[in-house]
Peptidase M20 (Acetobacter nitrogenifigens DSM 23921 = NBRC 105050), 463 residues
Amino acid sequence: MRVIPFALVLAVLAPQAARAEIAHHPRAEQQSLDLAKASIALRSVSGPGNQTPQVAELYKRTLIEGGFSPDDVVITPVDNTAYLIARWPGSDPALKPLVISGHMDVVEAKPSDWKRDPFKPIVESGYLFGRGATDMKLDGALAISSVIELRREGYKPRRTIILAFSGDEETAMKTSEMVADALRNADLVLNIDVGSGVLDEKTGEPQYFSWQGAEKTYADFRMSVSNPGGHSSEPRADNAIDRLAAALLRIQKYQFKPELNDLTRSYFENAAKLRPGATGAAMLAFAKDPANAKAIATLSADPALIGKIGTTCVVTMIDGGHALNALPQHASANINCRIFPGHARAAIMRELEQVAADPQVHFEDVSAGSVETAASPMRPDFVDAVTAGIQKIYPGTPVFPSMTAGASDSMWFRKNGVPSYGASPVFLKQSEDFSHGLNERTPVASIAPAVDYYLSVIPALSH
């Protein structure tokens, strides 16, 4: 396909919502694209040949060339990956730092499955293609290039600005926890990996921007039943698979108590304006009364919304039996839960045990790499800064909070009591979000407004 020049992409494919000008900062915009392509070309996938440390070195070179002191950009190797912390010292050391957080690793991608090699970035028809184009090497490049642009323009932060990139967010999150522990004195974290804008499917114009202020706790619980088994020609009432199946059906029919917090109430109140008909009415009704049965029924029927009104648990794997002609000696299943903020995993597992209502069904928490966290507060300084940044690039676009299903690096900062907010300025059509999927791509036209956004938000939070 024909490769379209960067400047032409900006002129032709930029969303049509009111932007007074485009390409205010051509140097930063070109650097964002070049850095994104260079980092996508590095296969930063967990396991043999992991090139995450090389991404860190690329970022370090770029920051030093952009004016950072070499002593202020530190790469820490961890197992086969690494994390990077870069500091831009502020003029007032008494102020806690602003952290801009992201990650350098990506999900595995097999070239044989893709139309294009996922680790050979290319711009075609106005899109940057490659693994990490959306999650999240373009975002990382935008943040780095925007900070360098601020230095180039002579900005002097009062509050120290820290760029922090973990190296295994997509897998073990070991470096994610280490970074959050090292920066537990931060005032606020701007997580550029989550939160984003949505483009209208038909017009391509910005529809709304939703920042992330909370995420649900990820949990896996193993349910298991064991008994002596026997010959299949002599069936008996006590069958491990039957017991497990009966417990699973009771869990399937169970709904955890619907609930709200300040973030989700604001989400429903604002999102309702964009959803006419029964769904929008149910959103408003639920925001007013989370016990409204009719609203609960409507929202629960939508897979995209049921997770926003409370904890959800669903069976994802089953295993049982050992021979075709034998009664099962063992049967097990995995229940995957996304837990509403404010609830402990242990409490949810106890609730599931009560629902299963069978003492022979044993429950075990087998969750890995997840911790319970409360929602971040709706801090006026953050809300005002992000709202102003979005209004600068797309005037009139609705801006409101959201809660995601988890888990991002924000989880580890919130665990340490540091408010963390997802607020990536990249806008996509929902149908074109291929994060973790095949043929991942992001519109190149999102680069110019994203730089403008960062040049507004970062000074607002670091002055």
